[in-house]
Specification:
Layout lengths: L1 H10 L2 H33 L4 H7 L1 H21 L1 H18 L9 H29 L7 H33 L1 H23 L21 H21 L2 H9 L4 H20 L1 H5 L5 H22 L5 H29 L5 H30 L1 H19 L10
Length: 409
């Protein structure tokens, strides 16, 4: 059976085999990334860290992601996307190894440094994977645009499903083998994936023939600049209540266990990833071009956190239902954005345009993470939800400045 599977894989077109390898690489990385986030939130809150202090542990993770997407896109164009992807895997292994030290050595500066490496690794890996899809989709196919959307949706949706599984894995590993044991298991898995990637991934994937200047990473395209600003607000709207506030609220106010909190967030992200794979069908139901579709789905999302803020959060059932509904609409928004950036990006130098866009994505996560810890600690979960609604509304307004049609730049 294994030999038959290998034979089938060898019979696939080269582009498809490379896409599958990149996707598998991305999956493995994302599983450890989701688990690490949940492990850090729950372990350090259990040690007595306040919500704001837990959020600060992710400060360098998000801040270095901003820089990485700018520099990483430029490096990908000069060196090849395979190299930036493999560097990301290697850095994640180092970050996990740094967290294997005894508990007494897990000081705030040390953990922030490890998280900085993990943030660099995550965004190198993501930028490389998303950019590679643009390179691999056949250009001479009459349906190349819809094929690109499907490939991006599958990559993004499957990644988020695995990130959700990572949340659950983090909670389970913390319960069963503890923090240090979890780091060892994940580092070992990634080392095997890195070895396969070094052997199998094409050497010059996405590398430009000419050496681009660093200044070229700053996009001159109105569509990419507007979409990047909308993306910043969109992801800040999610993380302002999802990253720190929600898991700490469930743990403190409702007495949920580690694995229960991790399980709920896992179900949310797995479902979110599943919806993303179906986003091409859902966005196809709305007519109005790129501008109209983007604004419509953002406005649909904006009302949900506002409604949740008005409901009694002591009734956890309302919160769970609202969280699931938010996940569905957020998934459609995110997947549509991910398609548009790959579509708008230049074919020659795609990694620089995608890197600039995901720099804005990282800035949104950084803003949302810091707000999540501070606003929750001072004002509570309802305030986080009101800020989320305002940020999504801002994203919808920005979408009105996009080109009317997706074919425009």
């Amino acid at each position: 059976m294994a030999e038959s599977l290998v034979a089938r894989l060898r019979g696939l077109p080269f582009e498809v085999r490379q896409y599958l390898l990149i996707t598998g690489n991305y999956w493995a990385f994302t599983l450890t990334d989701g688990a690490l986030r949940m492990l850090v939130v729950l372990h350090f809150h259990q040690l007595g860290y306040s919500p704001l202090e837990v959020a600060m542990l992710f400060l360098f993770y998000e801040a270095f992601g901003v820089v990485t997407n700018l520099v990483g896109g430029w490096l990908g164009a000069r060196l090849g996307l395979n190299r930036t992807m493999n560097v990301g895997l290697g850095l994640q292994i180092v970050a996990l190894a740094m967290l294997m030290v005894p508990a007494t050595a897990l000081t705030v500066p040390w953990v922030m440094a490890a998280q900085a490496l993990s943030g660099i690794a995550k965004d190198l890996n993501k930028m490389s994977a998303k950019s590679a899809v643009k390179v691999l989709v056949p250009k001479d196919n009459p349906g190349a645009g819809s094929a690109l959307y499907r490939w991006v949706a599958i990559l993004t949706g499957s990644k988020n499903a695995l990130k959700g599984a990572g949340f659950f894995l983090g909670g389970v590993l913390l319960t069963l083998i503890g923090f240090r044991g979890a780091m060892l298991v994940m580092a070992s898995m990634l080392a095997a994936v890195l070895l396969m990637s070094l052997v199998r991934l094409k050497a010059d994937l996405g590398r430009q023939k000419r050496k681009p200047k660093f200044a070229e990473v700053f996009s001159k395209s109105r569509a990419i600049n507007v979409l990047s600003a909308a993306r910043l607000c969109l992801f800040a709207s999610r993380d302002v209540w999802f990253v720190v506030a929600l898991p700490v609220f469930l743990y403190d106010q409702h007495g949920w266990s580690h694995w229960t909190v991790g399980g709920l967030l896992a179900i949310w992200v797995i479902g979110y990833g599943g919806v993303q794979t179906q986003a091409p069908r859902l966005t196809g139901l709305i007519k109005g071009g790129a501008r109209g579709v983007t604004a419509f789905w953002a406005l649909m999302l904006a009302g949900l956190p506002a409604l949740l803020a008005l409901l009694p959060l002591a009734e956890v059932g309302w919160l769970v239902v609202g969280l699931l509904a938010f996940g569905v609409l957020f998934a459609v928004n995110s997947s549509w954005h991910s398609y548009l950036i790959v579509h708008y990006a230049r074919a020659d130098g795609v990694s620089m345009d995608v890197g600039f866009y995901y720099m804005a994505n990282a800035m949104g996560r950084l803003l949302g993470t810091l707000l999540s810890g501070w606003v929750y600690q001072v004002y509570g979960l309802a305030a986080c939800l009101w800020i989320s609604a305002a940020l999504v509304a801002a994203s919808a307004l920005m979408a009105l400045a996009l080109p009317r049609e997706a074919s425009e730049r």
